[in-house]
């Protein structure tokens, strides 16, 4: 089967600074891959390159059958990128943001309602301008956009950041569901246990390259300790979650009069 | 392209309807500029006065300044919280994005020009003759100005100096449109319909040329932003 992502010695530059210094990686359809590595290792750049946002100047870079060295725009409609920024419009409501993204990507609009409901955004928050939301709620809206668009490839850059405990659990469920539905997920995260629990495989990035790295849960980022190759199945991944330490639930946030519209955080 | 343009224009106009930046900031700014022109070149008004003679030029300089603000606002929306990445990732046709953003700003500016024309007529005691040429030249000039602004707006989106970079790039390229629009309005206000129409043709050529350039160039410029 043709891999969804096929990179071979892929190099990407920002001016003359190498973002990717010869990445070689293959990801199969439906696979969930956890990218790990120290800050500045190239995880975000790899995700952005796969999304067609960073130019690959040499090597092989094929994503969903699109040769990114030739055309990096065609792939974008089939890819969903959840980056550090939420890419939302502050003045638009939650619903309008999601609908705009869905219409722009020519996705089927029938996923909007379900995604809003799934992310707990179908109540009062639906008509709330995004500028009035907390960082975690904005993150939920960005995830709702992703879910509603139903991309074939999910590129998640620190997706758990800013989410509360329920939100993190929900995100993990969504990743598993997307994978089960055939989507491929590339997930960059410093939250090793969480990310590893949903991943089929761990890939370590360092210095803009894929390196053999540790695969045991709880080891430090970028600490290439001579563990199994990145291509090996993840010992603590899906189907082997017993090896992953359970995550303690977060205490409920205190309620304060006049607080922000926080009701949407209560996702069942 | 047209579907994407409608989508983007609708989004930008919806944002404007909610934020009311054009109504609450750009329009008052433009009116204040006209009033300041009146204070600087007045107080004499009516036939023979400086203000009477310069009405068209002052009107279009004011529109030019308002265009910078409107375009900056239009692209500031895309510079916040990675929205430009979202726009690129959406898969929208870049030409459609260009036409959509330009169309939204054009709508805002045309509404502003109606207000400014009334204010200028009152302040400078200038009867708005040659109505058809005034309207047609306003539409053509606004399309041209906004097209240039939108081209340079996307250039400046990724720059940390975007507030100062846009006017620097925009004004020199807008000069021919400013000249033609002023001449067209001068001719129309003086009752020289044919003279005004000649400049109207020039404006139409500029508008078509700049829109064509923007449609082709916007994609690569957005990628580099």
Secondary structure category of chain A = alpha/beta
Strand order, main sheet of chain A: write it out.
6-7-8-3-9-10
Number of strands of chain B: 0
**Mean pLDDT of chain A, as a whole number?**
78
Strand content of chain B: under 5%
Helix-strand topology string of chain B: HHHHHHHHH
What is the approximate shape of chain B?
globular
Number of helices of chain B: 9
Percent of residues in beta strands of chain A: 15-25%
Question: Which oligomerization state do the chains in this entry correspond to?
Answer: heterodimer
Major sheet description of chain B: none
Number of E-state strands of chain A: 10
Q: How much is the average pLDDT of chain B? A: 88
Distance between the termini of chain A: 38 Å
Largest sheet of chain A: 6 strands, mixed
Question: How does this structure look, described?
Answer:
The complex is a heterodimer of chains A (268) and B (225). With 268 residues, chain A is an alpha/beta fold. Chain A is built from six helices and ten strands. Chain A has helices spanning 43-50, 94-104, 111-118, 135-149, 165-180, 192-198; strands at residues 5-14, 17-27, 32-36, 56-63, 66-67, 79-82, 153-157, 184-188, 201-206, 209-211. In chain A, the strands form two sheets. Chain A has a six-stranded mixed sheet, with helices on both faces. A four-stranded antiparallel sheet of chain A has the order 2-1-4-5, covered by helices on one side. In chain A, strand 9 (201-206) and strand 10 form a beta hairpin. In chain A, helix 2 (94-104) packs parallel to helix 4 (135-149). The longest helix of chain A has 16 residues, at 165-180. Mean pLDDT of chain A is 78; it is low at 215-237 and 239-268. With 225 residues, chain B is mainly alpha-helical. Chain B has one domain (2-224). Helix content of chain B is 85%, strand content 0%. Chain B contains nine helices and no strands. Chain B has helices at 2-19, 21-41, 50-53, 55-79, 83-89, 94-124, 131-156, 162-189, 193-224. In chain B, helix 4 packs antiparallel against helix 6 (94-124), helix 4 (55-79) packs parallel to helix 7 (131-156) and helix 4 (55-79) packs antiparallel against helix 8 (162-189). Chain B starts with a helix and ends with a helix. The mean pLDDT of chain B is 88. The chains are: A alpha/beta (268), B mainly alpha (225). The A-B interface holds A 51, 53, 73, 76-77, 79-81, 83-92, 96, 100-101, 103-106, 129, 138 and B 4, 7, 11, 14-15, 18-19, 77, 80-83, 85-92, 219, 223.
